[in-house]
# Entry
Amino acid sequence: MSALAQRLAGFLHQPGFQAAVPVLILLLIGFFGPLVLVAVFSFMPARSFKLDGGPTLENYRFAFEQSYYLSLLRSFAFAAGTVAVLALVCYPVALGMAKLFGRYAGVLTLVMVLPLFVSENVRLFGWVLFLLKGGGVLAGAAKAVFGIELADMLYSNSATLMGLAYVYLPFMLFPMVLGLSMVSRDVVEAASDLGASRWQIMREIELPLALPGLLIGGLLTFVLSLGSLTESKVLGGSKVIMIAADIESAFTYGQNWPLGSALSVLLLVLAGGLVLVVLSKLNLDAILKRR
# Structure
């Protein structure tokens, strides 16, 4: 028996691995199993569940011929825009929660977490009625009090981006808070005593040391925004079509599971490939302080 085979046999007989076997089986059945089925469906003929004629790339060809790539590109653009907006919005809030607010940081954390206990649909429709709709509460109050006609923001790119940023704000904020909590106050004070400006401290100390939290928050926000459905349907309507809406239409209204599977595979491959490329450009050992 080779050395590699001996090491593998020893690993398989370790108590830790044996204890993890039920979890591994659950992951294979509940996570990898559906992904494999979706990949198999994507090579079936349209509106069919058989591979009688062998695998086909017809669904992928049809997806590009019908310009589904436009909604895919739009989804990537919205996901990137959501990350950029939340990075700017969450950084000062996260810095305050980690370094400035002290015991009041728990209250702010509770305020940020409470919306997660309410259905996403309810929150988005609340935004529609209060802020985005031309005849909504805010528009009506502005007209009655100030005589100002507010424009209808509903069914637009800006409304969709606003909804994405609102829904996924906690997923960027809390990893960012954890990252900034790793920055020692003594290091910041030492840099300030040596004459470093606030911008230099943020660029040279806070951002590099907080990078693990920033990276995790950015990846979470990007992936979740990329596959979002409710925001585009409620806030974008028929004017803002993202790839998740096309996938849902293919599986439901179109009853074309192979096409929906092909679109899902394209989204999964492109998103996963982009994440791997980003991670490959970063020195994770240095970021996570591993030697």
Q: What stands out?
A: The chain has a mean pLDDT of 84.
